[in-house]
Amino acid sequence: MKGSPYKLEAIGDIVRESLPSSVTSNYWRQWQVWEKRSSLLLKKVFFFGNRGSAADAQHLAAEFVGRFNRQRRALPAVALTTDTSILTSIGNDCFYEPVFARQLEGLCSPGDIAVGISTSGNSPNVLSGIRFANEAGLVAVGLTGLSGKELVKLPHYCIRAVRPYPAYPRGAHTDWTYSV
Predict the structure, then answer these.
(1) CA distance 140 to 156
(2) Residue 149 backbone zone (phi > 0: left; psi -120 to 50: alpha; other: beta)
(3) Domain for residue 50, yes or no?
(4) What is the CATH number of the domain that holds 142?
(5) Total domain count for the chain?
(6) Staple 173 to which of 48, 100, 117, 143, CB 3.0 to 4.6 Å?
C-alpha cells in the first residue's frame, strides 16, 4: 500500500494495543486466513450490518469493488444493506431478523465470505446472517466491539476491537479491511 497512511505495521500496532496478548496471535492467524480467502481465491464477500455498520458495509464493499490506494483488479463484494426493495419486502413479508440470511441464501455460493458487522455483537439480523453463513458453507467473519456478546461465539473468525467506546471498533474494522 505504497503511499498509504494505513501501513500494515501501524494497523497491527493499533490492533495489538486493543487486544489482550492472549488474543493477538489468534488475530494475526485470522487476518492471514482473511487475506487468503478474499484476495487470492477471489470469492465473493458479502458485508452486512445495521445503522453505522450498514454504512460501513457499503463503504467496505465499495473499496473492494472500486479500489483503495492502488490500481488492482476489482474484488467481488456486495453490501447487503443497499437494496431497499429487498430490505423492505423481507421486513414486511417476514420480519426483519432474516433480512441478511435471506439475501445470502439467494446470492452466495459455498466458500464465499459473509462479514457481519455489529458493534454491540447482539443484532438479531446480523446473528441470523452469520448462522446462515455457517450452515451454507460460507466463511463467516464477525466484526464487533468490546462486549461482542453473541457475535464472538458464532463466526469462524471474529475481529473484536476492544475499546470502551463505539467509534473505535468502526475505525479499527475499516483499517483492518483496507489492509486486505
Answers:
(1) 5
(2) left
(3) yes
(4) 3.40.50.10490
(5) 1
(6) 143
